[in-house]
Amino acid sequence: MTDGDKLALATRLYVRLRHCTGRITDAMWMTQNMEYAREIVRMARTGGDDELMRLADRFEEVMFGRPRAMVAASATPAKGAADAPAAPPALGKYTGSLR
Question: Of 57, 52, 8, 51, which Cα lies nearest the Cα of 30?
Fold first, then answer.
């Protein structure tokens, strides 16, 4: 995928995030900084919107390989495994200070 295509996808994610959560992000920086891109994908997944989730999965696939949803589906726990409560997500470097 070309850099222009990545930027177009990041822009679509930016617009949807702005619409659903009111957060302003930097689409160009999303395509250049992997840590920032991961934080944006994490934020998008907490937005609760189906289109936002779909865009986050697509952006993650383009930037990092397989989306987390596919990785989680391929690594399902064995039957009978105890369901431990999930640990709270760690606060990222960009929380509260997104551009």
Answer: 8
